[in-house]
TrEMBL record, chain A:
Gene3D superfamilies per UniProt: Coenzyme PQQ synthesis protein D (PqqD)
Protein name: Coenzyme PQQ synthesis protein D (PqqD)
Pfam families: PqqD
Native source organism of the sequence: Paenibacillus methanolicus
Length: 94, 12
């Protein structure tokens, strides 16, 4: 079951992941689980914004400035992506 | 000019 993501909760990267840029996409190795992940281009942008604590609202506000996407759709997709990151233990609520 | 959006997905 996916963990619920709250819009006003701050999230941050969990330490211990090696991240590389591959053809514009972010690829990550989790040292803890020995799993490789592809975050893609937009996922990589979201990942970078979580270097320091940020809420969904803050991330969405930045993304809608940079990308051609409306706020509501962006918010829904960011929440789903964050749920995946939480499930894999790659980000944490702070 | 804004960048093209792609649905973010975490692929294992």
């Amino acid at each position: 079951m996916n963990q619920a993501v709250a819009l006003d909760q701050a999230y941050q990267q969990v330490e211990g992941n090696l991240v590389s840029d591959m053809n514009g996409e972010k690829v990550m190795l989790s040292i803890a689980s020995s799993k490789y992940y592809n975050l893609g281009q937009v996922g990589g942008a979201i990942w970078e914004k979580l270097q320091s604590p940020a809420t969904v609202h803050e991330v969405v506000a930045q993304l809608t400035e940079e990308y051609d996407i409306d706020r509501e759709a962006c918010e829904q997709q960011v929440v789903r992506f964050l749920e995946s990151l939480l499930k894999e233990g790659l980000v944490k609520a702070v | 000019m804004k960048k093209n959006w792609e649905t973010p997905e975490l692929e294992v």
